[in-house]
Amino acid sequence: MSASSRKSLFPGRSLQVDMSPMIDLVFLLLIFFMVSSTMITYRQDPNVKIPVASAGKVPGLVQGRVVLNVYEDGTIKDEAGKVIDPAGVEDLMRGAKSADPAVRLHVRADRVAAHRFVKGVIDASAKGGVVNVIFSTHVTDK
Known about the structure:
alpha/beta, single chain, 142 residues
């Protein structure tokens, strides 16, 4: 049926397409993708006072990191706040490495934490197979 013959079947009425179902579908798809996508963030523990650096850059990608907080007394906590020991760090890194070969360790060490505590975390991470390390610092403006 041609367009001219369709117009003759409904004299006085114009042909229109109802956009409401399409708009509803777009909103449903938007909600679906918002809910199903993973929000990639990490929590920062405000109790860890990270050191100040004169130079540095903010790493762009948050995905693929294992964040460990090292406190002044040598306590190590993961991103969820669970206390772990160096052997636990090694196991955690081994599991993270098997899940994502490009995983990185993100160390948030307290500015007054002894270097031996941080070194212990890095050594345990290396034993677990993760050797790419990111250190958190505050960068001063010059």
